[in-house]
């Protein structure tokens, strides 16, 4: 929004803005914020920042937790949800003593990945198009204790409410794809979400009802550069949840909130540019893809099990990655098969738009770290010239679920649990350390915390276990 501090300060004065909100992402992808009075919005803020405790958000140890936030002026927007006029910024996290960028800051990690790309000479820009799937529910309750484990969600669209009477236009399970009103009862909500996003400066490609009958939706942006795509991801989640809350509803990007229904993915479309030219395009290549694009695919699929340790970092991620729901569960690429880890969109045929999408990720990831991880794997594939066909990664355009088991076993499967993905990341992360993009310390801490989460789930009795085994 702004190119310098004077522009931002002028807007504050001209519009009688009273509050400045500073938002930042922790390592795990959750936004936090601190709000200062507009009287504190002075040039010294850009040098000294606003102090916060980095240990409380997992960045630092308690004994050395002091950090500061410095707003990225280009991200400024009027926050539409505050009653008092408030200008909001996404911030970088800095060391309190040296005022240097914190090395494990997720946005800085993404910047380093792109810097490594540029220094490699392969390309000078990575371009991304994340897709955002989410559910909107009317009510959610959950309870966990020594003697209870339960949750319940409800949706006005779902046919499980049909026996209660009412409008009669319910959506059956798996029947929500591009549903039209009156079945689609969320079109006004989605339009308000999109309208709000566009008002704060984010371009949106489209929105629609998704496959999941009880309130699944999708919003998609045009292709963006890596930091802009990360910022957009955080903003879309924030605005979606806030607009839903405003209307007495609740939105979740959880990968698998419903048993037996479609899950929420976060597919990442991606391509590389050099001097403004899409280097993934070759009019004579298979699926219009260049050798560079194919090597990038080779890198992604070679490292896919490890990549999922960062792009699919929740135990719930692996409730989604199961057969039967168009979920990507196999390491191959295809021009149409939606169970493939990588799909080449058949509609993207112009030289500037030819690309592919990596389908396994979901929105429990930190988008900055997820994109940095995928980019580093792709660069590794290009440097090592990993041909996906020679490596056994396809292309496969058949229905592999119709294959006999022995043939299907020839295709590498993706991890089926968080522990498997973390083990893969532990064994295969050298590609992330190149160019000092990630650090060994950061990855060790990531794996430690995620293993603790996995253990917390693993050691809790599950309600379905009570139904299965209580009488034995």
Automatic annotation (TrEMBL):
Show the Pfam families listed in the entry: Gln-synt_C, Gln-synt_N
Reply yes or no: does the keyword Metal-binding apply: yes
Q: Which GO cellular component terms are attached?
A: cytoplasm; membrane
Q: Report the EC code(s) recorded for this entry.
A: 6.3.1.2
Residues reported in the UniProt entry to bind L-glutamate: 320, 326, 338, 359
Keywords on this record?
ATP-binding, Ligase, Magnesium, Metal-binding, Nucleotide-binding
Domain GS catalytic spans what residues? 106-472
Name the Gene Ontology biological process terms.
Answer: glutamine biosynthetic process; nitrogen utilization
Domain GS beta-grasp: start-end pairs: 15-98
Q: What class of enzyme is it?
A: ligase
Keyword Hydrolase attributed: no
Binding annotation for ATP: 338
- GO terms of molecular function: ATP binding; glutamine synthetase activity; metal ion binding
Residues binding Mg(2+), per UniProt:
131, 133, 210, 218, 267, 357
Q: Which cofactor does it need?
A: Mg(2+)
Q: Which InterPro entries match?
A: Gln_synt_N, Gln_synt_N_sf, Gln_synth/guanido_kin_cat_dom, Gln_synth_cat_dom, Gln_synth_I, Lipocalin_CS
Q: How is the cofactor bound?
A: Binds 2 Mg(2+) ions per subunit.
Domain of life of the organism encoding this protein? Bacteria
Q: Which PANTHER family match?
A: GLUTAMINE SYNTHETASE, LENGSIN
Q: Which family does it belong to?
A: Belongs to the glutamine synthetase family.
- Under which name does UniProt file this protein? glutamine synthetase
Question: Organism, per UniProt?
Answer: Bellilinea caldifistulae
The UniProt gene name for this protein comes to glnA
């Amino acid at each position: 929004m702004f190119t310098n501090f004077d522009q931002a300060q002028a807007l504050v004065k001209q519009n009688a803005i009273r509050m400045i909100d500073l938002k930042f992402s922790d390592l795990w992808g959750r936004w936090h914020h601190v709000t200062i009075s507009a009287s504190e919005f002075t040039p010294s803020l850009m040098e000294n920042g606003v102090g916060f405790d980095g240990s409380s958000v997992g960045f630092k140890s308690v004994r050395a937790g002091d950090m500061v936030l410095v707003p990225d002026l280009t991200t400024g927007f009027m926050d539409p949800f505050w009653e008092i006029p408030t200008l909001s910024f996404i911030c970088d996290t800095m060391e309190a003593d040296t005022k240097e960028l914190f090395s494990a800051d997720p946005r800085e990690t993404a910047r380093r990945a792109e810097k490594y790309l540029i220094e490699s000479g392969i390309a000078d820009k990575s371009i991304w198009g994340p897709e955002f799937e989410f559910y909107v529910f009317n009510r959610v309750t959950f309870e966990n204790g020594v003697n209870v484990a339960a949750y319940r969600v409800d949706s006005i669209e779902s046919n499980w409410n049909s026996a209660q009477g009412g409008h009669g236009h319910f959506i059956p399970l798996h029947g929500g794809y591009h549903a039209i009103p009156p079945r689609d009862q969320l079109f006004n909500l989605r339009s308000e979400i999109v309208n709000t996003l566009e008002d704060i400066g984010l371009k949106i490609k489209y929105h629609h009802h998704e496959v999941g009958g009880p309130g699944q939706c999708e919003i998609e942006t045009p292709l963006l550069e890596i930091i802009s795509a990360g910022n957009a991801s955080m903003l879309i989640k924030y605005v979606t949840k806030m607009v839903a809350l405003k209307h007495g509803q609740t939105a979740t990007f959880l990968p698998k909130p419903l048993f037996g229904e479609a899950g929420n993915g976060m597919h990442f479309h991606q391509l590389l540019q050099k001097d403004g030219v899409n280097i993934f395009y070759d009019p004579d290549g298979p699926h219009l893809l260049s050798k560079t694009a194919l090597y990038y695919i080779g890198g992604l699929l070679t490292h896919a099990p490890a990549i999922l340790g960062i792009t699919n970092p929740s135990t719930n991620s692996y409730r989604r990655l199961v057969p039967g729901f168009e979920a990507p569960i196999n390491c191959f690429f295809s021009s149409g098969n939606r169970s493939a880890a990588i799909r080449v969109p058949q509609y993207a045929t112009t030289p500037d738009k030819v690309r592919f999408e990596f389908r396994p990720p979901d929105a429990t990831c930190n988008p900055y770290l997820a994109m940095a991880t995928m980019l580093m794997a792709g660069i590794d594939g290009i440097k090592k010239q990993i041909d996906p066909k020679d490596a056994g990664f396809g292309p496969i355009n058949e229905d592999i679920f119709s294959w006999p088991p022995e043939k299907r076993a020839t295709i590498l499967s993706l991890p089926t649990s968080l522990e498997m993905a973390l083990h893969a990341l532990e064994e295969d992360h050298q590609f992330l350390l190149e160019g000092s993009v990630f650090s060994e310390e950061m990855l060790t801490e990531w794996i430690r915390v995620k293993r603790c989460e996995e253990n917390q789930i693993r050691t809790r009795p599950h309600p379905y276990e009570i139904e299965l085994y209580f009488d034995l």
